[in-house]
Amino acid sequence: MKRSIFAIVLLGILLSACEPSDTRPGLWLSGEVEAFPSDWSFADDFPLIAIQVATPYGLPHSVTIWCAQVDGKLYIAANAPQSKSWPGWVEKDPDIKLKFGERLFEGRLRRLDDPDEIGPVSAAYSVKYQLSGDLATGDGPGSWFWQVLDRPE
């Protein structure tokens, strides 16, 4: 009897915590996946989006993040990435889902390591979110940046 109650409570928790909200993480992102956009300029209208990544324990993990676009290409970042789990998981499995409002997209992340490539992305973040300083190096723990690419078929 206690096990069945526990199972029902656990199922309820899992179902109620599907998508992330503000700083609360979630599991899977729901919706019908749309075709990969050729131009991500619409991302400027979204201060906060959701990302879903694969985890080593089989359930997806989703959080809300910031994003920026440069010349129609989409980029995401993780500030203080060593203090979070999802950036490490992305390094092992770069296939992700992103949710903009009700729009859901699949993609693959490519981590940026060239300062000449990171500079314009960091600048786009600074403008969009009215930040001062360089996100990539700054005085704090720094950030990792990824470009969102279409998944190969």
User: Do you know the CATH architecture?
Assistant: Roll
In round numbers, the mean pLDDT is 87
Q: Give a count of the beta strands, DSSP E runs of length 2 or more.
A: 7
Structural class category: alpha+beta
Poorly predicted regions are none
Biggest beta sheet summary: 7 strands, antiparallel
Number of domains: 1
Kindly identify the CATH topology: Pnp Oxidase, Chain A
Look at the structure and name the CATH superfamily.
Electron Transport, Fmn-binding Protein, Chain A
Helix content: 10-25%
Overall, the morphology is globular
What spatial order of strands do you see in the largest sheet?
A: 2-1-5-6-7-4-3
What is the overall number of helices? 3
Helices and strands, in N-to-C order? Answer: HEEEEHEEHE
Describe the oligomeric state of these chains in a short phrase: single chain
Alpha carbon gyration radius: 17 Å
What does this structure look like?
With 153 residues, the protein is of the alpha+beta class. It has one domain (2-149): Roll (Pnp Oxidase, Chain A). Helix content is 24%, strand content 28%. The chain contains three helices and seven strands; from the N terminus they run H-E-E-E-E-H-E-E-H-E. It has helices spanning 2-16, 86-92, 115-128, and strands at 49-53, 61-65, 67-70, 73-79, 95-100, 103-111, 143-149. The protein has a seven-stranded antiparallel β-sheet, sandwiched between helices. The longest helix is centred in the first third of the chain and has 15 residues, at 2-16. It is globular, with a radius of gyration of 17 Å. The model has no long low-confidence stretch (mean pLDDT 87).
